[in-house]
Amino acid sequence: MTEPGDEGLLADAIEQLPFILAVCEGPEQRVVAVSGATRAVLDERAVVGQPIRAVLSDLVGQQIPDKYHEVYETGEPVTGQEWRVHLDLPDGSIHEMWANFTIVPWRNADGTIRGSIGTGFDVTESVRKRQAAAAEVADLRERYDQTRDVVTALQRVLLPPGLPVLPGAQIAASYLPAVTDSAAGGDWFDAVVRQDGSVALVVGDVVGHGVTAAGVMGQLRAVLRDRLDTGAHLVDALAAADRFARRIPAAHATTVCVALLDPADGTLTYCTAGHPPPLLVTDAGDTRYLPGTGGTPLGTGALFPVRTETLELGDLVALYTDGILERPGRTIPASTAELAGVAADSAAGRALRDPGQSPAERVCSQTVELLVRTTGHTDDITVLAAQRVAPAAPLELELPAIPESLRPSRTAIADWLARAGATAQDTFVLQHALGELMTNAIEHAFDGVEPPAAPVVRLRAELSAVGCLQVTITDQGRWREPARQSTRGRGLALTSQLVETMRVEPTAEGTVATIRHSLTRPARLLSEAVSARPVVTTAEFHLTELDGTDGGTEGGVHVEGPVDSTSAERLEQSLLQRSRGGTLPLTVDLSAVTHLASAGVAALHRVADRHGRQGGKLTLVAAPDSPARHVLALVAIPDVTIGPA
Description:
Elements lengths: L6 H9 L4 E6 L4 E5 L1 H7 L9 H4 L8 H11 L3 E11 L5 E14 L5 E10 L1 H13 L1 H11 L1 H9 L4 E2 L4 E8 L8 E9 L5 E11 H20 L4 H14 L7 E7 L5 E7 L5 E3 L5 E3 L17 E4 L5 E5 L11 H17 L10 H17 L5 E8 L6 E6 L5 H15 L3 H21 L11 E8 L4 E7 L15 H9 L2 E6 L4 E8 L1 E2 L2 E2 L16 E5 L8 E9 L4 H11 L7 E11 L1 H17 L3 E4 L5 H8 L6 E3 L2
Parallel strand pairs: 7-23, 25-26, 26-27, 27-28
Antiparallel strand pairs: 1-2, 1-5, 3-4, 4-5, 6-22, 7-16, 8-9, 9-10, 10-11, 11-14, 12-13, 12-15, 15-16, 17-18, 18-19, 19-21, 20-21, 24-25
């Protein structure tokens, strides 16, 4: 038994505790003792004697330090299970961990509160093991869901497949169903781009859940979208939805908020028809709820007054359903204040560190995660956010008309599309399509004319006010019909399949190729994992031989990097050499190919033709969602087995 004065022995015992411990004292919650496990997590930080908010400054936006102060002020303990946190490390990297914790009040002998005592356990390993196990059964889960969860498919059909990418506004949305094993509900969102460049933002909530609510939601969304798409005023669009709601009992008392944003001047006209008002997060980080307009729910009164606000550059407006406010254990005033604070932290990047997301995407995903993990939720939650941003300037390139210009052009296009807000999927499609047109322009830039001293190909890309990307590629040559060869002329055909429209026009100065393609970003259904998407990379071309399994008579080749006009011939020669001119079976793994141009497809056709004539079996494999798999799905290579990696 320790005697008074054995403080050193007690401190040594605390140091050896195998779990996180932090003891804080006073109104500033200054740290007076920590365990060795705590020091290990916090690395080289100054801890003892410092306020907990200073010690955990990188977690301020993640709620942890606030919980110590909450316990000190209320005297009520706080617990958390598997909270995800991001810690800043001295080398500038981010350490992600999950923790279970409990914070209890530290009381004096007379019962007054002296401070708080926090204990925690790092459960990162168990969480990651569970995530790994979940990944292993993802395929079985997907098959099970396809046969069981018809309602989820219905929800996907009724909600918009994507959100527009606009030059002056970044838009995002998320949806979290009330029941984790069913995505059916009455919440919906929409973003409708109008011909004048304005965008109508819609969030609505049909009473109830299940197939009936989802079906009514889909019909109301269609009515509103049709009116808004044709340029109707907000009041006229809501009046049409109101007439529908009067005829359908299940649509009665549906609430909806509709806001019309003009990204050019920031004008925001909105109506709250029985719905919570929009939240404004300014570029400076201030927050306020816009005044409600006093509109009535659909089918109850047909009163739809509107109000107007102005968004400055960097300002963000968020529309949401009341599921995020009516969380267990929270009053509406407390929930509205909490929503504003967490949304501001998420928009500014002070919460979870997801640098790849835009502020609008962080508000839609992180705000929901941070709020729901504290209280849980009993209703569907939908968040739609739009931030007014400065439009990206058009991309203009002037490159030498040589094959070596292809890779720098792909890099420049990818960088510009990223700044414009394009997804990795659209970037992959457009890189491929533009690569084909650039290759065609380089090959035929000077057919029939004397080349000037510095032959060039010009590219110009611009995103229109309605979110349609237009790219023109101009050369100085004369148009020539593609030669009718079995492995030539596929570039333009493949490009026309990848984009919405393509036009090639010969002029007196040269040939002009124009493509148009609407850019969209997916909304996030928070009950499901994000699908894997092609990764854009600028890796160099490499080819590696893989030993066969039967003494070397049958092997394979692993291809990595871009296969374009500068590397296709080398690929063809290597494959034919490995298969002895097509006489031996050969498997070619294209999973790591970052760009498969028509020149590469033509090379594969020639290799396949040689194998077909010589009797050797050719097998092409590519991982699902890889760039090569996308291209192989569009082209046909006779007598070739195409399978998964």
